[in-house]
Amino acid sequence: MKKTKLVVLFLSIFSCCLWADTARFNDMGFSPDGLQYLFGQYGELIQSDGSTKGYAEFFAVDTAKNEYVKDGTFKTTASGKTSGISGEKVFEQLLTTEDSFISSYKIPDESNSVILYQVCSSLGLNDYNGLGLLTSDTIGKDAESSPLYKDVVEFRDFDNPSTNEVETYKVRINELVEGKGRNAESSFCLLVEQRTSSGKKQNFIVGNPQIKRKGVSGYRLNRVLRDKNGKSLVFVIEKQVEESYGPAVRFMVETVRLPS
């Protein structure tokens, strides 16, 4: 028990050292038809004098087109106005200000997303190839990222109402990174394999590998969500962004509508 606690403590310290600024992800949920998905992120930037400035943003995504809806990006940047205010508080204020937009898509107060996969928190510890893979049986709406992942993620959807079948997924990130540090430039896509309990199989690519992102040096799959109708999938991706103050983690999503 003591050994486990020490390893968990070490990993927590390691994570803090590894990421200078890790945003927290907020799964806001889907519109009733699953055609739009909203998510947010927030955090605090630590200043040279030790003070903090909160920031927050949220986005509305067209799940069929895998792109932001028109005028669907909202941000409150870290500034003197947010000095000493937590990112969570800044996020709440942003949601209040933009409530009419959120309501226009009938996004519920509590997320209606079905979680198919999620990187786990540090409530327990399992050994994975000689490294600590943090695991948990509980899933929270707001989950901070973990620095350790499997290269290929496999999970199942046991109750998809659109097919009435058990669906098994395998997901791998195919990324290309050129350069290092703030000079890095990268692109990626997700290679997805879906198998159903009746034996059907299909492979598809999610994301555009032609899009290059400057200052991004890596990607990790944080979680996979679907709408209650079983037609839209959302892949939540962590981006490692190289900032002047060190590496930071920000979130993005890739979406796909499953064929009938």
Structural class of the secondary structure composition?
mainly beta
Order of helices and strands: HEEEEEHHEEEEEEEEEEE
Q: pLDDT average, as an integer? A: 84
For the terminal residues, how far apart are their CA atoms?
49 Å
Question: Please, how many domains?
Answer: 1
Uncertain residue segments:
1-19, 122-150
Shape: globular
Radius of gyration, whole Å: 19 Å
Structure explained in plain terms:
This protein has 260 residues and is mainly beta. It has one domain (2-257). The protein contains three helices and 16 strands. A five-stranded mixed beta sheet has the order 1-16-15-14-6, with no helix packed on it. β15 and β16 form a beta hairpin. The radius of gyration is 19 Å and the shape is globular. The model is unreliable at 1-19 and 122-150 (pLDDT under 50).
What can be said about this structure in brief?
With 260 residues, the protein is mainly beta.
Give the SSE map.
Blueprint: H1 2-18, E1 21-22, E2 24-30, E3 36-46, E4 52-62, E5 67-76, H2 87-97, H3 99-104, E6 114-118, E7 124-128, E8 131-135, E9 152-157, E10 167-178, E11 185-196, E12 201-206, E13 213-214, E14 216-226, E15 232-243, E16 246-257
Parallel strand pairs: 1-16
Antiparallel strand pairs: 2-3, 3-4, 4-5, 6-14, 7-8, 9-10, 10-11, 11-12, 11-13, 14-15, 15-16
